[in-house]
């Protein structure tokens, strides 16, 4: 590490900042369903996820190899390119977090790296075959495979548990959810933490500190694991809300099916070196499990916004990275300008997010002042249907409750409406005279 220059140090710190944003951006992948079904308390859930993310970072380096020596050609890559790639990835992570949309941190990083590389040395610097086989194909296949697996798993769990009492079944599946959430967190560490390891290793190769083809040093593995664990512990509550409540309403059986299916897909891809998106896998599993319950639904308006974000991730991060690379290559002032722009943009996004705070106290709310832009537009505010039904269901005729209910209903529409109701009502049948009333009264009736 004694040969690391100031520029290389800036790149490494920026990479760890990206790793941190990756942690809180992707906490929802492991813990959203566990929190939404009440299987774990929010703070306990993110703490467990953080620890297992750290452990997972030490289990494999296959994905790191794909990033550091597979996606782009190491020859000709300068540290400025890596810095620009990280700027594009970090800003995309923060923007999608601000609006509560689950997007891929992995694709943001890869899009930034591709955009900055093309801007620096041209298309020849990109390994097209690796991009197609280990990035684009998994991006499409992962949510489909995870969704189908979760759909079948949810159907199977309901079929096997149809004779089990509701309370005992829910308790058992909540325990299963905790175990499967831990597995997803472990899988996330084996996949996403390695992406930062790979990008730091690539920067070290570009800076001449490591020889081309080197594996990540131990200190890189430790620092990347710590950064993603810290980000995970802080929790991306906005995205947790969208993933847990915005896509569908999950029961413990569905949460267990979704997390188990997603974990299987992520672990298999990590073993094969596929740099897939854990967000894509977990989101697909949540939607599949939502459809796996009879009567279950998926809020497609929220899903559509999420799909659009997925499609924009690679090009958006790539364009920002390309612009940052153009400025950074101008020299020391360009690098300083890019760094200042990144810090200022991050600060601005954070201050905007403080207008509507989402944290562990209100993460399961879907309406009210705490709701943010990630709240699904088609979610009906709680209590509207119940209030409407109560308003049109009359109490027994002639009771005092009937009169009180009429006055309260009128006041709910307009404060002065209660007096208007009583003053404007006129009898539809004219009052009878005294003689006519006496003749109409049944014989023997008391006055």
From TrEMBL:
Q: Where is the composition biased (Low complexity)?
A: 430-447
Q: Cross-referenced Pfam families, in alphabetical order?
A: PHO4
Asked if the keyword Transport belongs to this entry, the reply reads yes
* Keywords recorded for this protein, A-Z: Membrane, Phosphate transport, Transmembrane, Transmembrane helix, Transport
Q: Where are the transmembrane segments?
A: 6-24, 44-61, 81-101, 108-130, 136-158, 196-213, 219-240, 307-327, 333-352
Q: Where is the composition biased (Acidic residues)?
A: 404-414
> Where does the record place it?
Membrane
Q: Where is this region: Disordered?
A: 395-447
Q: What is its main location?
A: membrane
* Mode of membrane association: Multi-pass membrane protein
Cross-referenced InterPro entries: Phos_transporter
Keyword Coiled coil in annotation: no
Member of which family? Answer: Belongs to the inorganic phosphate transporter (PiT) (TC 2.A.20) family.
Return the protein name. Phosphate transporter
The species this protein was found in: Streptomyces solicavernae
């Amino acid at each position: 590490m004694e040969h690391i220059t100031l520029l290389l140090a800036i790149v490494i710190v920026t990479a760890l900042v990206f790793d941190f944003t990756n942690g809180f951006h992707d906490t929802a992948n492991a813990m959203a369903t566990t929190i939404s079904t009440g299987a774990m308390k929010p703070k306990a859930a993110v703490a467990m996820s953080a620890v297992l993310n750290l452990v997972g970072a030490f289990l494999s380096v296959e994905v790191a190899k794909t990033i550091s020596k597979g996606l782009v050609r190491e020859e000709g890559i300068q540290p400025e390119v890596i810095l620009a790639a990280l700027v594009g990835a970090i800003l995309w992570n923060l923007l999608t977090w601000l609006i509560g949309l689950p997007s891929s941190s992995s694709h943001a990083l890869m899009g930034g790296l591709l955009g900055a590389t093309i801007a620096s040395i041209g298309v020849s610097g990109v390994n097209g075959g690796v991009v197609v086989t280990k990035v684009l194909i998994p991006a499409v296949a992962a949510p489909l495979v995870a969704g189908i697996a979760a759909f079948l798993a949810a159907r199977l769990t309901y079929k096997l548990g149809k004779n089990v009492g509701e309370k005992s079944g829910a308790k058992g599946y909540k325990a299963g959810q905790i175990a499967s959430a831990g597995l997803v967190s472990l899988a996330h560490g084996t996949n996403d933490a390695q992406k930062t390891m790979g990008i730091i290793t690539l920067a070290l190769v570009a800076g001449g500190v490591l020889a081309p083809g080197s594996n990540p040093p131990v200190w890189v593995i430790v620092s990347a694991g710590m950064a993603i664990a810290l980000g995970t512990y802080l929790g991306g509550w906005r995205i947790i809300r969208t993933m847990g409540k915005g896509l569908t309403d999950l029961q413990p059986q569905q949460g267990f099916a979704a997390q188990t299916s997603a974990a299987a897909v992520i672990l298999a891809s990590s073993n094969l070196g596929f740099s897939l998106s854990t967000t894509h896998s977990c989101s697909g599993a949540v939607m599949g499990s939502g459809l796996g319950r009879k009567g279950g639904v998926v809020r497609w308006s929220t899903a559509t916004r999420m799909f659009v974000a997925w499609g924009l991730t690679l090009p958006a991060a790539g364009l920002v990275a390309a612009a940052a690379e153009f400025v950074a290559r101008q020299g020391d002032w360009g690098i300083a300008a890019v760094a200042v722009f990144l810090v200022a943009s991050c600060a601005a996004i954070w201050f905007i997010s403080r207008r509507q705070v989402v944290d562990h106290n209100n993460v399961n709310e879907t309406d009210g002042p705490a709701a943010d832009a990630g709240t699904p537009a088609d979610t009906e505010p709680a209590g509207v249907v119940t209030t409407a039904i109560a308003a049109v269901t009359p109490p027994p005729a002639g009771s005092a409750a009937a009169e009180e209910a009429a006055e309260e209903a009128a006041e709910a529409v307009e404060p002065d409406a209660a007096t208007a109701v009583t003053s404007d009502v006129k009898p539809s049948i004219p009052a009878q005279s005294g003689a006519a009333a006496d003749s109409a009264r049944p014989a023997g009736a008391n006055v």
